[in-house]
Task: inverse folding
């Protein structure tokens, strides 16, 4: 069970106002704000519990992380990463198992290199995450490519490195984004995933700088869209 804590003062204000309006007709069953440790709500995905200083703790129902896989299976994952990176001699350090940062139903193995961090889906062996350790900053004299060329490079990267992308791209919704010299090209399932908290859609995303160098990649499980 995973716990996420956060503070939402605005929500407290709204809840207090709603409670004040209802006091004229209905007497509240518990004081507001609730005492620390009070279960505020029980949802499909877990329970929400109050904590100190007006914060809340959300506990999501999740299956336990499995034990580490045998070295032979991890060797296959490392081979997949080296093929993905185009670096046969890439040095990799195994960092353990965790849930995919964008899809908690996918268990991934985490590998670190001096250049980037990688994650491999233990179920299908695909690389589903890459983030460069350092994102270079472009100097004023650097050549900057047009957005259309950057999108074309991102698509070519996905065609080469994601075995499901080409067969799914026509049913995915394209969402461009960016900040400064860095662009983020995302292709999302137009339908929300009702099995995930907040109904987030499944997506694949490429981070690429204005010179055309790819520094980030996230696949939150588009290959599983094939599964009915």
Result:
């Amino acid at each position: 069970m995973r716990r996420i804590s956060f503070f939402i003062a605005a929500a407290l204000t709204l809840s207090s106002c709603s409670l004040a309006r209802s006091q004229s007709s209905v007497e509240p069953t518990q004081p507001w704000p609730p005492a620390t440790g009070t279960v505020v709500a029980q949802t499909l995905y877990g329970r929400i519990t109050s904590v100190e200083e007006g914060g809340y703790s959300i506990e999501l129902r999740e299956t336990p992380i499995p034990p580490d896989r045998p070295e032979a299976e991890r060797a296959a994952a490392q081979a997949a990463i080296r093929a993905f990176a185009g670096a046969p001699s890439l040095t990799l350090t195994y960092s353990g198992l965790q849930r995919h940062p964008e899809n908690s139903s996918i268990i991934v193995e985490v590998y670190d290199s001096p250049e980037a961090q990688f994650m491999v889906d233990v179920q299908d062996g695909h690389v589903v995450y890459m983030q460069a350790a350092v994102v270079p900053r472009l100097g004023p004299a650097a050549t900057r490519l047009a957005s259309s060329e950057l999108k074309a490079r991102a698509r070519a990267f996905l065609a080469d490195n994601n075995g499901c992308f080409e067969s799914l791209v026509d049913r995915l919704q394209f969402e461009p984004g960016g900040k400064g010299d860095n662009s983020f090209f995302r292709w999302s399932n137009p339908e929300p995933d009702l099995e995930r908290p907040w109904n987030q859609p499944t997506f694949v995303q490429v981070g690429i700088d204005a010179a055309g160098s790819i520094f980030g990649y996230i696949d939150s499980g588009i290959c599983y869209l094939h599964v009915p």
